[in-house]
Amino acid sequence: MAYLILAILAYLIGSVNFSVLISKKMAGFDVREKGSGNGGTTNVLRTVGKKAAILTLLADIAKGILAIMIAYLVGKFAKANPAILVQIAAIGVVVGHTFPVFFGFRGGKGIATSLGILLLLNWEIGLVCLIFAVSLMVITRMVSLRFDFSGSIISNSYTFYERALFSFWKLFDFWYSYGRIYSI
After folding, report:
1. What does residue 99 show for φ and ψ, rounded to 5 degrees?
2. Closest Cα partner for 14 from 52, 65, 55, 54?
3. What digits encode the pLDDT tens for the residues 53-77?
4. Which of 46, 84, 136, 150 is the most buried (most CB within 10 A)?
5. pLDDT score of 170
6. Is 139 helix (H, G, I), strand (E, B) or coil?
7. pTM, two decimal places
């Protein structure tokens, strides 16, 4: 039962489309009616401006973080597998962002919400992806390109991160064992 309730709650959290709310409040129109027609941060940047885009980005990141935090809380109190709860919350909030029930099932692409999830689950890799995406956007001036390449960075960063951490602990273990045996 906890899984179903969490899935619905995460979907409803994701369904709050901040790009539409912020564009209506700051510019007086639905962002999906202008520009690319997408309800995401990039279209808000192009049609409303930087301030609205930053607010939209932060709010969408916060949606992902909130859904995962709720999953952690449910995992502490319910008799359910916490790893599955986190996965259900992550999928639910991104699906809600992409197909929001409150806005005619026309939302964004789920990039910022996914970034929020990633930052909470593994902030190091999330930070690497964020830095890479911003750097790529500054260099190329192509907003859409930044997250196309960030997806490949996620898997490569995770592999590198795991190997580097494993190598560090292996070296530490060798040093610690060697020092104890030979009393260095």
Report:
1. -130, 70
2. 65
3. 999 999 999 999 999 999 999 998 8
4. 150
5. 46
6. helix
7. 0.77
